[in-house]
Write a structure and sequence with these properties.
The chain folds into two domains: 112 residues, no CATH class; 137 residues, no CATH class. It is built from eleven helices and eight strands. By secondary structure, it is of the alpha+beta class. Helices cover 47% and strands 14% of the residues. It is globular and about 85 Å long. The longest helix has 30 residues. The strands form three sheets. A three-stranded antiparallel beta sheet has the order 1-4-3. Strands 6-8-7 form a three-stranded mixed beta sheet. Helix 3 crosses helix 8.
Length: 303
């Protein structure tokens, strides 16, 4: 039996294009993808439920905003998307017959002897399209654990206040660089209020800080955390957010969603790290130094 027809079967040659024609084709491909990004941005800001669905996606699939927009439009159930090579480096392989999803893929190349970075339009695959060792389900955390982690990972100190105005659950005070929170609320409300104000503190970079300007992104970031950890999110409503940002131009909408992605993602990463550290058991000491027993004095011996 001759195996050459199976093993050495030549792949069909790639079509060759003149340099100018190839560059034009690639530009058209990039333009088409960026047009999809803009279209998708309008879709997720069309109404409250659409924005809520996109925030659900953002909380589970961490990526750049353009890729989140692209991927959520192709499959809202994607949670972990990587390129073929990235999955290979992670020790996983793409299942036979799986089709990838269109995404913007980073690229490193040489330009006049120097390394430069850019991007291509390529394919990524969700973890459900791969095979390898079984993936452990996400850990479940009680609300009290999440509150403790939120307080520990807060960018500024958090204090209990008995003097907050009526209706104010928690508030970041920029002059004091402190978050004040009302005591006695239910656990879910307490966590969401703390996370929202942690987002406000993250937005406070310089003297241009304006609380009202970051109210909606902070609210969305709090929702991302609540959804990610399985809290009751029935009290969240995004109609006011959409009424404000749905009327803006594409650049302003992109800025808003980028703020949500950056700060919401940062909050999730800090919480994950803190929770991991809190649940990690201290390693057993293998080389303990024995503590010598104290010698009794003569008076102790006499009783």
């Amino acid at each position: 039996m001759d195996l050459n027809k199976y093993i050495n079967k030549a792949a069909p040659p790639e079509p060759q294009y003149p340099k100018e024609e190839y560059a034009a084709m690639k530009k058209a491909e990039r333009d088409a993808v960026w047009a999809q990004v803009d279209t998708r941005m309008g879709e997720v800001l069309a109404d409250g439920p659409a924005l809520q669905g996109f925030l659900d996606f953002m909380s589970q699939c961490r990526s750049s905003l353009p890729n989140q927009l692209l991927l959520s439009g192709q499959n809202a159930d994607i949670t972990n998307a990587r390129t073929f090579q990235q999955w290979k480096d992670a020790g996983r392989h793409i299942r036979t017959g799986e089709e990838g999803y269109t995404a913007i893929v980073g690229q490193v190349y040489e330009n006049n002897g120097r390394k430069a970075s850019g991007y291509n339009i390529g394919k990524v695959f969700d973890i459900t399209q791969t095979r390898g060792r079984p993936v452990s389900p996400p850990a479940h955390h009680e609300v009290e654990e999440l509150i403790a982690a939120a307080i520990e990972s807060s960018p500024v100190p958090i204090q209990i206040s008995d003097s907050l105005p009526d209706g104010i659950q928690a508030q970041y005070v920029p002059k004091a660089r402190t978050i004040y929170v009302r005591n006695g609320m239910d656990a879910g409300t307490t966590l969401c209020a703390i996370i929202r104000e942690c987002a406000q503190a993250d937005f406070h970079k310089d003297y241009t800080y304006n609380r009202q300007a970051y109210a909606a992104p902070s609210y969305c970031a709090a929702y991302m955390v609540a959804h990610r950890y399985g809290l009751d999110t029935a009290a969240f409503n995004f109609d006011r957010v959409v009424a404000l940002y749905g009327k803006l131009n594409a650049e302003q909408q992109k800025g808003f969603l980028s703020d949500v992605n950056t700060v919401g993602g940062g909050l999730l990463r800090r919480l994950d790290r803190t929770l991991s550290a809190q649940t990690r058991e201290a390693p057993a000491a293998e080389y303990d130094v024995a503590v010598p027993a104290k010698k009794q004095t003569r008076q102790q011996e006499r009783g």
